[in-house]
Amino acid sequence: MKATPDTLTVSVWRGAESGGSFESFEVPNFESQTILDIVAWIQQNSDPTLTYRYACRVGMCGSCAMMVNGVPRWTCRTHVQKVVQDNRVEIAPLRNLPVIKDLATDMDPFFDKWIAAEGLHHPTKSRHDPIEQINPESAARVEAASGIECINCSVCYAACDTVANNPDYLGPAALQRAWTVYNDSKDAGRQQVLDAVSGVGGCHNCHSQGSCAVHCPNDLNPMKAIAGLKRATATSFFRKGSRT
Amino acid sequence: MIRPHRTHTLWFAYILHRLSGLSLALFLPAHFYIMSLALTQPERLDGFLKWTDLMIVKVAEYGLVFLLAVHIFGGLRLMALEWLPWSNGQKTLAAAAVGGAFLISTMFFMRAI
Ligand code: SF4
Ligand code: SF4
Ligand code: FES
Predict the structure, then answer these.
(1) Looking at A87, A105, A123, which one is the last position of a domain?
(2) What is the pLDDT of residue A239?
(3) Phi, psi at residue A6, to the nearest 5°?
(4) Which residue is closest in CA terms to ligand 1's atom 2?
(5) Residues 15-54 of A with CB under 8 A from B
(6) A224 inside domain
(7) Domains in chain B: how many in total?
(8) What distance in Å separates residue A130's CA from the closest CA in chain B?
(9) Which of helix, strand or coil describes residue A16?
(10) Any idea what DSSP says for residue A44?
């Protein structure tokens, strides 16, 4: 058996939106560490000017995603041993988003599209009304629940080639949230959602390549949610057509 | 071209569908042109048909049938994926059933000719 080397060679992307390049660092090869751990090690021990983002470190906040060896991942829950190749790791900022500096991307476009897709709550009741009972087994609730664990990490958005090729495309996470809202019986905005997701950058742009579902760290399936929106928008279109 | 985030089955299914579609689109105009010779210049059509005895053309024909099959099944797969509100398990079973039926019917077909 080969002895594990003492250090790892880590290539880290440095720069801003205007340009940059990879810089190499030697990092201790501890037995159990995450990608976020080695990024933090570099910042604390090699170069304090390295910029990156994280908050919870336990896979809940969705702020730490980066490209690791070309694949988008949540870095706080990605073990180095799982992804290391020939003792090397390459870490870059998330794809499909503007870079602020080094590994920190500007996630505004991602969240703006979330709003543009009407992935918001449209209330049916006020605080003075009694709380509505929801049957967790109803078909609509099961659909809504299937996408509810999204942590807004933008890993799917970075994995999606349609986002890369069409800047207007709302993207897998925003559309999945729209589908969740659409299926929520406490939501009054069903038609608003359908209108928002059937436009130029809407659900019909999706090629069902499924990179979103393959890479989502929470095992969600935005592709399936988008297929739901495709059916719902098509049905509503034909209904409207038959009424006029 | 095949970047790391694309190395998964669904992406390969996507690219196969794209490429088979493009190749068919390139082939079909030539196909219709040659067929039209049957009406306009039957002698030239016979000339073309002699080619089909060549081994290389036989292989090319096999390629075409393959492209057609791949594109048809890829299309059915996409339509099922997007238009049927089934669970993933149900879709896998359905795909396996269609694939199995296709294999068996092709075997009978091959024996018949
Ligand atoms: S399935 Fe659709 S949303 Fe998901 S990665 Fe592919 S194109 Fe993007
Ligand atoms: S769907 Fe998955 S990959 Fe996309 S933002 Fe939500 S948790 Fe992240
Ligand atoms: S730091 Fe919160 S998900 Fe990774």
Answers:
(1) A105
(2) 82
(3) -75, -25
(4) A206
(5) none
(6) yes
(7) 1
(8) 33
(9) strand
(10) I
Q: How far apart are CA B108 and CA B105, in angstroms?
A: 5
Are A218 and A113 members of one domain? yes
A2: in domain: no
- CATH number of domain containing B42: 1.20.1300.10
Residue B113 pLDDT > 80:
no
Q: Which of A72, A221, A231 sits opposite B83 (nearest CB)?
A: A231
Percent of all residues in chain B with a pLDDT value above 90, rounded to a whole number? 5
ipTM: 0.71
**What confidence score (pLDDT) does residue B112 get?**
65
A38-89 per-position pLDDT tens digit: 999 999 999 999 999 999 999 999 999 999 999 999 999 999 999 999 999 9
With residues binned 3-state (H G I as helix, E B as strand, rest as coil), the percentages for chain A, rounded to 5, are: 40, 20, 45
Residue B99 lies in a domain: yes
C-alpha to C-alpha distances, A121 to A111, A118, A224, nearest whole angstrom: 15, 8, 21
**pLDDT tens string A125-173:** 999 999 889 999 999 999 999 999 999 999 999 999 999 999 999 999 9
DSSP-derived secondary structure for B16-34: HHHHHHHHHHHHHHHHHHH
Within this chain, do residues A12 and A94 fall inside the same structural domain, yes or no?
Answer: yes
CA of A110 to the centre of ligand 3 (A): 17
The HSE-up count of residue B77 (CA atoms within 13 Å, CB side) is 23
* Domain boundaries, position A73: 7-105
The total number of structural domains in chain A stands at 2
